[in-house]
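step=encode ok
step=design start
structure_in=
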């Protein structure tokens, strides 16, 4: 009976994460999205190489300096 309950909880957790996303993956995804935006802005010439490197470093460190 106890094992059956654990299996049901695991299945429920799997479908919950599949539907709503796992918080660990969301943080990583947000970081990657921000880095992609910085790369695109640099490629379009909107920011200098110094600003690109600073923003990239801040994102990698988890900082939010502007």
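sequence_out=
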């Amino acid at each position: 009976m106890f094992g059956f309950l654990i299996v049901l909880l695991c299945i429920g957790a799997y479908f919950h994460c599949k539907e709503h996303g796992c918080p660990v993956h969301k943080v990583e995804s947000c970081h990657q999205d921000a880095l992609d935006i910085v790369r695109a802005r640099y490629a379009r010439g909107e920011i200098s190489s110094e600003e690109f490197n600073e923003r990239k470093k801040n994102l990698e460190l988890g900082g939010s300096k502007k």
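step=design ok
step=annotate ok -> The chain has three helices and no strands.
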